Amino acid sequence: MADIATLTDLIEPEVKAEGLALVRVKMIGGTSDPTLQVMAERPDTRQLTLEDCSTLSRRLSDLLDRLEEEGKDPIEGAYRLEVSSPGIDRPLTRLADFDDWKGFEARINLAEKLEGRKVLTGDLIGTEGEAIRIDVPKIGEMQIPFSAVHNAKLVMTDKLIAATAPLDAEGADSIQVEGQD
Q1: Short-list 112, 156, 110, 157, CA closest to 134
Q2: What percent of the chain has pLDDT over 90?
Q3: Which among 11, 23, 40, 166 counts the fewest CB atoms within 10 Å?
Q4: pTM value?
């Protein structure tokens, strides 16, 4: 349906122009509900505000609409655009993520079995060159080539929740309904 590398090359400069870092570009939803998912974050806070999402969404929509008008639409057919933060149990998509989140628990799915295992869960130790270091319970420290990772994400723990508390939760406990005061 769409070439993710091409989409990433188009999207990343737009994300950077907003002062954000691109975390992931992915097509989800299959053929019945295709959605272009773009995850980004502020490099200094590792978070994304609602205003950031809105601004980036408009910027990407304008880019994609312009490409479609020029006959250069990178995505065939109709789709939805979803711009979001990576969330608490964020995907780990860049080698640097494994250093940034060392000390936290992660689940790593490998493209092929390594030492008899395809899924590893444990505390991140960091990286060494192009390898990820992880402390797997009952096994100990393992080094995994970054190229062997199919996908990885942080595991929701109390420690992670405490470390990723929102910068500003003002208004989070109230709901406003349009047309009502």
Answers
A1: 110
A2: 73
A3: 166
A4: 0.80
